[in-house]
Amino acid sequence: MAATTRSSDSGRRTLGAFVRSRRERLSPEDVGIPDSSRRRTPGLRREEVAALSGVSLSWYTWLEQGRDIKVSRQVLASLSRALKLSAPEIRHLYRLGDELPPDLGKAHSCPGADDRLDAMLQALEPNPAVLLDHHWDVLAWNRAEAGLFTDFGALPVERRNTLWVIFGWEPARSLMTDWEAQAGQVLAQFRMRADEQFGDARFTEIVADLLAHAPDFARFWQRHEVADYRAVHKHFTHPRAGRLALRQSKLIAADDPRIHLLARFPADERTKDALPLLVE
Fold first, then answer.
1. Does residue 269 surpass a pLDDT of 60?
2. Mean pLDDT over all residues of the chain?
3. The dihedral sign for the CA sequence 237, 241, 243, 248
4. Span 133-182, pLDDT tens digits
5. What CATH architecture is 113-279?
6. At 130, which helix (H) or strand (E)?
7. Which of 33, 192, 197, 279 could form a disulfide with 28 if both were Cys (CB 3.0 to 4.6 A apart)?
8. Alpha-carbon span 214 to 163, nearest angstrom
9. What is the pLDDT at residue 42?
10. Residue 263: other Cβ atoms inside 10 A
11. pLDDT computed for residue 87 by the predictor
12. What's the pLDDT at 256?
């Protein structure tokens, strides 16, 4: 119990120090407060931030001091506006306040794949590789990935999605040797993210489309299973390359953590020799 208390105390102190640092970087002019006086300390005064945030001076002082007080999402939103926080700073503030960061609008749009990431996809051939966004939408792919699955460019844009390929694209059931296990595992990872981003229109659209058109999806969805990503071996029976055993790795793009690079590498010599058949 003592360790938990120290950890909580440390978290509150970190939150207070972060808020104080954001307060001290602002000037009265930054927030529209006329001020002609000389200030002994940099930045806004505590009472000014308290007033801008709609909280009492005592409560705000306790916050900076790391006291054991309740910090609601509404107050975090007010502090974000008062302190003119950037999107990364807002996410950091919410996490320090032990709250799920808000959707800042940008997340509903599909990020793009830049030339560097696209070049990395091509350099990985004949290993299949694909770029996915946080909705599991397919942004870009190399020839090996298209050879393993399908020409994603021929799919309607709204169905260029990993969940649609697994549940709504009929050949997936014979291609993926252990389809039932793979489908459940991927959906559990998707479910965790979709539930955390409740109200995200793209997640809602994907689920509604699959419920309406994909056999078996409702059966999996009703389980409410969730899981973190873990690297696993996946097995395929490909019509041209035969039996494939692939180990999967995922990397997150440093400049946009919504973009994931998913690469598949041979797990045995037979697969290594067969992979070039995917790009012929």
1. yes
2. 88
3. negative
4. 989 999 999 999 999 999 998 998 889 999 999 999 999 999 999 999 99
5. 2-Layer Sandwich (3.30)
6. strand 129-132
7. 33
8. 10
9. 76
10. 20
11. 83
12. 78
Amino acid at residue number 103: D
Rounded to an integer, what distance in angstroms lies between the CA atom of residue 15 and that of residue 10? 9
Are 107 and 134 in contact, with CB atoms under 8 Å apart?
yes
Cβ within 8 Å of residue 123, ≥6 positions away? none
Domain limits of the chain?
A: 2-105, 113-279
Task: Render pLDDT for 90-144 as a digit per residue (tens, 0 to 9).
Answer: 889 988 988 877 765 443 344 555 678 889 999 999 999 999 998 999 999 999 9
In the chain, helix, strand, coil percent, each to 5? 50, 10, 35
The answer to whether the CB of 263 falls within 8 A of the CB of 249 is yes
Angle between helices 57-65 and 2-24 (to 10 degrees): 120
Question: What's the half-sphere exposure (Cβ side, CA atoms, 13 Å) at 34?
Answer: 0
How far apart CA 16 and CA 20 sit, in angstroms, is: 6
φ, ψ dihedrals at 154, nearest 5°: -85, -10
Average pLDDT rounded to a whole number, residues 9-37? 86
2-105, CATH topology level: 434 Repressor (Amino-terminal Domain) (1.10.260)
- Cα 67 to its chain centre, rounded Å, is 31
DSSP for residue 112: P
Contacts of 54 (CB under 8 A, 6+ apart): 78
Kindly give the residue spans of alpha helices, DSSP state H, lying in the chain: 2-24, 46-53, 57-65, 73-82, 87-96, 115-123, 143-148, 162-168, 172-175, 179-196, 201-213, 217-221, 269-274
